[in-house]
Amino acid sequence: MSLTLLNVVLAVFIAICFVGANAAYLVWCERKGAGFYQRRPGPMENGWWGLLQPPIDGVKLMTKQLLIPGGVDKAIFMVAPVLAMFPALISFVTIPFSDNIVAHPIDVGVLVIFAFAALGGMSLLVAGWGSRNKYSMISSVRAVSQTVAYEIPLLITTITIVMISGSLNLGDIVQQQLDGFLSWNVWPLHKEVGFNLLMPVSFLILFVCSVAETNRAPFDLGEAESELVAGFHTEYSSMGFGLFFMGEYANIVIGSCLITILFLGGWSCPFGDLGIFPFTHNVGWFLLKIYLIIFVFIWIRWTFPRTTIYGLLNLSWKYLIPISLFNLLLTAGLLKVF
Amino acid sequence: MNSPASFMDAPALFSADGLLGIIFLIMIAVTLTGGFIAATAERLVRALAGIVICFTGVAGFYYFLNSPFMAMMQILIYVGAICITISFAIMLAAPERTRKTGPANLLSGPLGFIIAALVFGGMCALALRTQWEPFAKSATGTVREIGIELLTNHSMVFELISLVLLIAIIGAIVIARGGRTG
How far off is chain B from A41, nearest CA to CA, in Å? Predict the structure, then answer.
């Protein structure tokens, strides 16, 4: 495939549309989900079942005044929302939606996602510091310590998968899980490793870490409304806040894409390739899987209460890191044996 | 063949090489701007932001030099780990409106400029006098090749990294033990 300018522009356009549409309608899903778990209908007024709510909210956000409080560190204050959104956009470049739908199948795809996720952590820090507000400061310290703590088990778990599949290319990782759902990495049955009982545990670790990395409840200590007003985005209005919001949902999509690719077989059909249309390996399965995972994200958010900061950090440093390290060693040993 | 490249040899602006050259220049500009901000900013956090920009520019160079692995590691480690650690240090240690610390001493005044000029001149002389040979592309930059190179030809570097990590661990233990009384 030749890399013409048109292709590039088209790919960028589609990526931005996908991120924007997801961000807008995931907010709708979130509100509907919240309503469902709290026995109320959620947004109902605009359009059928409130489906016109996201575009209207978008217009509202864009037409509001962008207030810049007097005391803030202006340059840094303005950079933060951009930093929240743009790494998420870049990560979409390397995510394979199907064997031929991928913008740029870079060889170190896994690293691209983690590198730019780290940049996203910078944005929380910069936003909290630039706001010159005690609550924002506390929030950004919390958010960053959380990001740092949960990045480690996330990376170790990913390295385990990378060791099994021998490639950092996300497409290659999926290619090895195409023989029906028993060949997915989440089961302890992989032929290279024999019988590794800890793989489902690794999957859970990766899942918990993605919930924590995207700062979602029950791990949303960074924006705990009851203690910190709204955390690092207290001082942001209009689209400044809108970008943080979109960045959060874009990160959720990326997190669920990563879980799907690493553990749930990406675009593979769970029954193997049967040759009849809906049961071939296609992009539909990928979307189905990521939206199922996003549904679980929403489910968890509205079911569990927020943890404490100590509970959060203890969970990572005392349980997740040792377990994921142990699984790394176990997998390395099993790879040698089998 | 050691003819100095003249301006006329430069590729056309809108050819592939020309565009690559422009990207290269942009990356140089990003790196230098970041470095300049880091060196001149009055607030520590802005200096940190400068360092982040500078590191991102350097990552761009690695990508340009056909090593995406190095580029991503540069961002992951330098921006994601080191800069965040520095920012923790700033948040925990520095008061909100800390300006430049202390009066300028000899090292940050004329002596610093002299050393910088010497280093710059030395590097320039080195770059201009060296007989540059195009290096045969040995690796495609994949992880497997980097791993093999790291454990065979460059195992010294690998060992030194472990030494650095050991020192870091010892340092952490010393600092953590120092605070305890009981």
Answer: 41
Sign of CA dihedral A105, A98, A215, A157: negative
Q: Which residue matches tokens 């790394």? A: A328
Residue A39's alpha-carbon distances to A34, A35, A42, in angstroms, are: 9, 6, 9
Taking 3-state DSSP, the helix, strand and coil percentages for chain A, each rounded to the nearest 5, stand at 70, 0, 30
Higher pLDDT, B149 or A206: A206
CB-CB under 8 Å, B96 with A148: no
Nearest Cα residue in chain A from B46: A76
Q: Of the given ranges (A50-64, A241-255, B85-99, B107-121), which has the lowest mean pLDDT? A: B85-99
CB A306, CB A142: distance < 8 Å? no
B87 touching chain A per CB within 8 A = yes
Collapsed DSSP state (helix, strand, coil) of residue A210: helix
Give the residue on B whose Cα is nearest the Cα of A106. B68
Q: How far is A271 from chain B (nearest CA, A)?
A: 32
Nearest to A122 among B52, B96, B144 (CB): B52
- Closest of A16, A14, A34 to residue A24, by C-alpha: A16
Tell me which DSSP letter residue A222 carries: G
What ipTM does the predicted assembly reach? 0.74
Higher pLDDT, B94 or A76: A76
- A69 three-state secondary structure: coil
Nearest to A19 by CA among A103, A122, A118: A103
